[in-house]
Amino acid sequence: ARGAGGFQSGRVVHGMLVASLFPALIASHFPGAVYASQSLKFSAPVYVGDEVVAQVQAL
């Protein structure tokens, strides 16, 4: 963990671990849906205990 201008102190969650939650979330809310692709923007680090908000667009 870095200080000024970088990561705060704390445990950072790997971005792809966070992204791996999305297919399970979609499957639980939309049974039978085909999860074909995703586009990710990692705008800030995610720390252990953070709440993650996702925006989903169904086509």
From TrEMBL:
Gene3D superfamilies: Hotdog Thioesterase (3.10.129.10). SUPFAM superfamilies: Thioesterase/thiol ester dehydrase-isomerase. GO terms for biological process: fatty acid biosynthetic process. One of its GO terms (cellular component) is mitochondrion. GO terms for molecular function: (3R)-hydroxyacyl-[acyl-carrier-protein] dehydratase activity. Residues 5-57 form the MaoC-like domain. This is MaoC-like domain-containing protein. It comes from Aegilops tauschii subsp. strangulata (Goatgrass).
